[in-house]
Amino acid sequence: RFYAGGSERSGQQIVGPPRKKSPNELVEDLFKGAKEHGAVAVDRTAKSGGETSKPKPFAGGGYRLGATPEEESAYVAGERRQNSAQDVHVVLKLWKSGFSLDSGELRSYQDPSNAQFLDDIRRGEVPAELRRLARGGQVNLDMEDHRDEEYVKPKSVFKAFTGEGQKLGSTVPQVMGTSSPAQQAENEAKASSAIAIDESEPITNIQIRLADGGRLVQKFNHSHRIRDIRLFIVDARPAMAATSFVLMTTFPNKELTDENQTLKEANLLNAVIVQRLT
Fold first, then answer.
1. Exposure pattern of 106-137 as b/e (b: 16+ CB <10 Å)?
2. Where is this chain primarily localised (predicted)?
């Protein structure tokens, strides 16, 4: 507001145009509004971006035990959620010249299309576009303060090849494909359940590095044999059933040729085993 001319007893008050807030003030305003509506500050070292403390329910399969010793245990596949609602975790990063969601593109503070989104944040509400993304599920929104930093476009994440190929060197080429994540998780759960663990006997963890780049960790008794590991791999990756491979130790690299040895005899307790195609 400005005062213009006149005498001691007269004059005119002039209202000027509203001053635009700087990006620093705008970010401060967003954090202030969110805190006034219940947002809680989180220590960055206590929780890394993209993590959520809410436990995920087990969605794999399992074995239904037989009622009698003669009755075979039946495998029961996990039930898939019929509801399309899903919990969503989003990280809102507030930069010097705009904001981004997770690893998305920079969105300007001055763009009118982003005004409603920022107003919702200022009021402590979840923006409509994030609610639509969750389809009725819960939205967990974290805000990160980067107001003193310029936006840097994140590097693209490497995506492994998921197609099919032919293994060379055999008369009839064997086609190996990659199953869906859900099917792969189901196969791994089935393979893990097939390993009979005696809780009264010593137990060890074996880490298996697969030729397809995957990794499996499974509990075995010390009395289990190396061939049990081979059967476990084939159950977890059915596509490898017709593939020739050997099992090896890490440094020093040594092929496990005698698969009748127990894990204790082969000095493989808490070991890492590598699968190599032949």
1. ebebeeeeeeebbebbbeeebbeebeeebeee
2. cytoplasm
SS3 string, 68-106, reads CCCCCCEEECCCCCCCCCCCEEEEEEECCCEEEECCCCC
**Span 181-277: which CATH code?**
3.10.20.90
CB 275 within 8 A of CB 216: no
HSE-CB of 268 using CA atoms within 13 angstroms: 34
Which range among 15-24, 159-168, 185-194, 197-206 shows the weakest confidence by mean pLDDT? Answer: 159-168
Among 155, 152, 128, which Cα is nearest to 139's?
A: 128
The Cβ of residue 38 has, within 10 Å, a number of other Cβ atoms equal to 7
Closest CA to 49 of 84, 100, 109, 97: 100
Give the right CATH number for 20-37+85-154 from 3.30.70.600, 3.30.420.40, 3.30.420.210, 3.30.470.20: 3.30.420.210
pLDDT in tens, 18-34: 666 677 788 888 888 87
* β-pairing verdict for 245-249 and 174-176: unpaired
Angstrom distances, CA of residue 61 to CA of 44, 75, 80, 231: 36, 7, 10, 19
For residue 163 the two structure tokens come to 């197609």
> Mean pLDDT across the stretch 203-218?
90
- Helix residue spans in the chain (DSSP H): 23-36, 115-122, 128-134, 181-194, 226-236
Q: Report the C-alpha gap between 205 and 224 in whole angstroms.
A: 12
195 in Cβ contact with 207 (< 8 Å): no
What ranges do the domains of the chain cover? 20-37+85-154, 181-277
